[in-house]
Specification:
The complex is a heterodimer of chains A (309) and B (314). By secondary structure, chain A is an all-alpha fold. Chain A folds into two domains: 22-90, no CATH class; 99-302, Orthogonal Bundle (MetI-like fold). Chain A is built from 13 helices and no strands. Chain A has helices spanning 2-29, 34-42, 48-57, 64-76, 90-125, 130-144, 147-161, 173-203, 206-212, 218-246, 250-255, 261-270, 274-302. The longest helix of chain A has 36 residues, at 90-125. Chain A is flat and about 85 Å long. By secondary structure, chain B is α/β, with parallel strands linked by helices. Chain B contains nine helices and twelve strands. Chain B has helices at 44-52, 78-84, 106-116, 123-132, 151-165, 181-198, 209-215, 233-238, 243-250, and strands at 6-15, 18-28, 33-37, 59-68, 71-72, 89-92, 169-173, 201-205, 218-223, 226-232, 298-301, 304-306. In chain B, the strands form two sheets. An eight-stranded mixed β-sheet of chain B has the order 6-7-8-3-9-10-12-11, with helices on both faces. A four-stranded antiparallel β-sheet of chain B has the order 2-1-4-5. In chain B, helix 3 runs parallel beside helix 5 (151-165) and helix 4 crosses helix 5. The radius of gyration of chain B is 20 Å and the shape is globular. The chains are: A mainly alpha (309), B alpha/beta (314).
């Protein structure tokens, strides 16, 4: 398994190279001039001479390939460049934002899984009970509501009515609560539905009868066997959600003013801050590929029939 | 009849609204192998399901009783039933993937089974049993997962686990039907051996009369939910009484490459209410009285019961 993981990581290199080229080309082709944007944001009149000088200072007058190779070589040294907007190193800026996004992603995923799986299992074994029906209505609602609406409703309830939280999230545990909840509600709904469906299909498998016929405790059948076999598709849906979350939940981050990577990407794109956008896309792509790898490995851990090659 | 391992008394079993088994009675003595044979849908598997009494199977006993070693287990509570399943009643299903979770190792599944009954799992003890049953690669078997094994090996692993759990009664539901002849032979020889060594009583459901003839002491023939003939295996096979049993025996394929003589028509639908004998539509010996005569299993010869002896030439 380790060998396989290493092989996959090595295979990552050409993928990342392709991504760098794609990102760089796209940013190059995007209309708008970062030098002009920078000068405008600083105020004052922008003369053609000043613009040319600024473009030269920013290295924008060099040919496409020279700029690209320069950028890639710098990445290998761990240097993602400096931000056009505040002259800060991109790497440290991104890491700070990324850590906040990852904290939010980890907290909401963990919270959703811990809540949703027991609910899913319980509704599967108590199919069509009152509890199952209530959960069904709640999960449909949670699934159907757009993210921004959930965020706004939570804000209205917790910040304006109850006044338990500040409207602008602080970057501490308390501040994390509402964005986490806002991201978790649709996830809990999805995970619980998925768990219920998979557990129900597993319960109709013949080995479950075989285990009952051996007098194995219900708990053992349910949590060590049925859930184990159902985990494959639960992992699929969880990893899909994690991939979305890692990209930064732009809407949620913006509503709660959570300074994560989604928020940063939005501002950088508007400001034509190429180094930040390029760096962010590169890091996020790497993370996406790593999540894929972890997902594939966990499939294998659950079910050895799945070939790794 | 207190010294019977299992007693089925006047059992009627429904599945939803359908009556599958009607007034079936017989007993399995300690150390005895009783085979129940019949066409698909005659209720033989339902009989085993009724004895197991697992809620998820959906069988419902409306009349009669099931007595295991003198204890009435017809309507046991879920926890009481769980405690006797595995340790008092063993089970080998038809589906060779029906005993174990396909993607977890035998070892953890053996452990779970033992622990559920408060027993300690001992690797060496398991390996000793594998050796006793001549399993190949016995030292490493526990590490495998069921999907890595053949169907026959899976059945044998289920039997070996039963040896560890120590039931006195084994229920085998077409346990050899989907196996190739070699595996079939191995499984049957194992069961016979364990019956001898451990005194197992076995209720063996099969549609294969050849298998029954090899392993059984008694044979019961079921037709459309009713036991139509029951007795010592040799008597039933050599001197069948009920017209259905005779047809069934005639339908066994021979070596002459000819298609066996099938049975004309189909059994009545599950749950259909019948007055008189329900074999009437397919019976060539039936008389007017058969259509009204109530069902009753009578002792025609010593230890040989049948519900009808029309057309029998002695």
């Amino acid at each position: 398994m380790l060998k396989y993981a290493l092989k996959r990581i090595i295979k990552l290199i050409p993928v990342l190279l392709a991504i760098t080229l794609l990102v760089f080309t796209l940013m190059y082709l995007t209309p708008g001039d970062p030098a002009l944007a920078k000068l405008t944001s600083q105020g004052g009149t922008v003369t053609p001479e000043l613009l040319a000088e600024e473009r030269h200072a920013m290295g924008l007058d060099r040919p496409f390939f020279v700029r690209y190779v320069d950028w890639v070589l710098n990445i290998l040294k761990g240097d993602l460049g400096t931000s056009y907007s505040d002259d800060q190193p991109v790497a440290s800026k991104l890491m700070k934002a990324l850590s906040r996004t990852l904290a939010l992603a980890a907290a909401s995923t963990l919270f959703s899984v811990v809540i949703a799986i027991p609910i899913g299992v319980y509704t599967a074994i108590r199919k069509d009970s009152l509890f199952d029906n209530i959960v069904r209505i709640l999960t449909f609602t949670g699934n159907a509501m757009p993210n921004f609406l959930i965020a706004l409703l939570l804000m209205f309830l917790f910040c304006i009515k109850i006044k338990a939280f500040p409207v602008v999230a602080t970057t501490n545990l308390k501040g994390m609560f509402l964005p986490t909840l806002a991201l978790s509600i649709p996830m809990i709904s999805k995970f619980a539905r998925q768990t219920r469906a998979d557990v129900m299909s597993q319960l109709s498998e013949e080995y479950v009868i075989g285990m009952h016929a051996r007098g194995i405790k219900e708990r053992t059948i349910l949590f060590k066997n049925v859930l184990h076999n159902a985990l494959g598709s639960i992992i699929t849906i969880v990893s899909l959600q994690v991939r979305v979350l890692i990209g930064g939940s732009v809407v949620t981050e913006m509503i709660f003013r959570w300074p994560g990577i989604g928020n940063m990407m939005m501002t950088s794109i508007t400001a034509r801050d190429y180094p930040v956008v390029q760096g962010a896309v590169l890091i996020l792509s790497t993370l996406q590929v790593l999540v894929n790898l972890v997902t594939d490995l966990s499939y294998y851990i659950i079910d050895k029939r799945i070939s790794l090659e | 009849m207190a010294n019977n391992m299992l007693e089925i008394n006047n059992l009627t079993v429904t599945y939803g609204d359908f009556k599958i088994i009607t007034e079936v009675s017989f007993a399995v003595k300690p150390g005895e192998i009783v085979c129940i044979a019949g066409e698909s849908g005659c209720g033989k598997s339902t009989l085993i399901k009724a004895v197991l009494g697992i809620k998820q199977l959906g069988t419902f006993i409306t009349e009669g009783s099931i007595i295991l070693e003198g204890r009435d287990i017809t309507h046991l509570g879920a926890e009481e039933r769980r405690q006797i399943l595995g340790t008092h009643i063993g089970y080998v299903p038809q589906n060779t993937r029906g005993s174990f979770n396909n993607i977890r190792s035998y070892e953890v599944q053996y452990q779970e089974a033992m622990r559920s009954h408060g027993l300690k799992f001992n690797r060496d003890e398991a390996i000793k049993i594998f050796n006793r049953l001549n399993f190949p690669d016995s030292d490493r078997l526990l590490w495998y997962q069921p999907w890595e094994m053949s169907g026959g090996m899976n059945q044998r692993m289920a039997i070996a686990l039963a040896v560890l759990l120590g039931p006195k009664l084994m229920l085998c539901d077409e346990a050899t039907s989907v196996l190739d002849v070699t595996s079939q032979k191995e499984v049957i020889e194992e069961l016979s051996k364990l019956r001898k060594e451990l005194g197992w009583s076995i209720l063996f459901i099969t549609h294969n009369l050849g298998v029954a003839s090899h392993i059984a002491d008694k044979l019961g023939v079921m037709y459309a939910g009713r036991m139509v003939e029951y007795g010592d295996i040799r008597k039933v096979l050599d001197d069948p009484i009920h017209p259905y049993t005779r047809k069934l025996l005639a339908a066994i394929p021979g070596k002459d490459r000819k298609l066996p003589v099938g049975l004309e028509g189909r059994p009545p639908l599950d749950g259909a209410e019948w007055t008189g004998c329900n074999f009437v539509p397919r019976c060539e010996y039936c008389t007017e009285s058969c259509k009204t005569r109530p069902y009753r299993l009578e002792e025609i010869a010593e230890g040989h019961f049948a519900s009808c002896s029309e057309g029998r030439t002695v």
